[in-house]
Amino acid sequence: CDVDQTFIVILAGESMEQMQKFYCDNFNLEKASVMDSRIRAISRVFGKPENTKYKSAAIPIKDQSLIEIDELPEGSERRLGESGYLLPGISIVSFLYYQSETDNLDAYRCNLPNLKSKKCTVVHGQNQEIIELIHQ
């Protein structure tokens, strides 16, 4: 199967401020404007009315796509999963990384046909997400 590019990857967590700070500080991205938005999937999961609004922001990624950040309502908890398995929802995402080459001992070579031999590293986000960086 061919590998496609994601247009928008969605991250949901407890604190809009903390999520934006993590991505902006670690990946040299610019903080995005926060707006109130209806997000039906969150409302459905938390048993809220469909027209409930949540804080949402979209951080642009150089030459790629967007990271949509949604703040979950008060009382939300960390996702539960089974040891050795990915968590439910979007758990892992790969981004091209233009900042620097890596000397990280944990780096490995990418096996995708169009990215053969590029170095990759993994970063763990504060909301249990796994971020694979493909160094350019």
What would you say this structure looks like, in words?
- The chain has helices at 16-27, 40-46; strands at residues 8-13, 35-38, 53-60, 66-71, 92-97, 108-109, 119-124, 130-135.
- With 136 residues, the protein is α/β, with parallel strands linked by helices.
- It has a single domain, classed as 2,3-Dihydroxybiphenyl 1,2-Dioxygenase, domain 1 (Roll), CATH 3.10.180.
- Strands 1-4-3-2 form a four-stranded mixed beta sheet, with helices on one face. Strands 5-8-7-6 form a four-stranded mixed beta sheet, with no helix packed on it.
Characteristics:
136 residues, alpha/beta, 2,3-Dihydroxybiphenyl 1,2-Dioxygenase, domain 1, four-stranded mixed beta sheet, 32% strand, globular
What would you say about this model in short?
By secondary structure, the protein is α/β, with parallel strands linked by helices.
* Main sheet: strands, sense, barrel: 4 strands, mixed
Distance between the termini: 23 Å
| Low-confidence runs of at least 5 consecutive residues | none
What is the count of structural domains? Answer: 1
CATH superfamily: 2,3-Dihydroxybiphenyl 1,2-Dioxygenase, domain 1
CATH topology: 2,3-Dihydroxybiphenyl 1,2-Dioxygenase, domain 1
Instruction: Please state the CA-atom Rg, rounded to the nearest Å.
Output: 16 Å
Count every helix, treating DSSP H or I runs of 4 or more residues as helices. 2
Which structural category fits the helices and strands? Answer: alpha/beta
Strand order of the biggest β-sheet: 1-4-3-2
- CATH architecture title: Roll
Shape by Cα distribution = globular
Q: What order do the SSEs take from the amino end to the carboxyl end, as H and E?
A: EHEHEEEEEE
Kindly provide the name of the CATH class.
Answer: Alpha Beta
Residue fraction in strands: 25-35%
Overall pLDDT, averaged?
86
Number of strands: 8
Residue share in helix? 10-25%
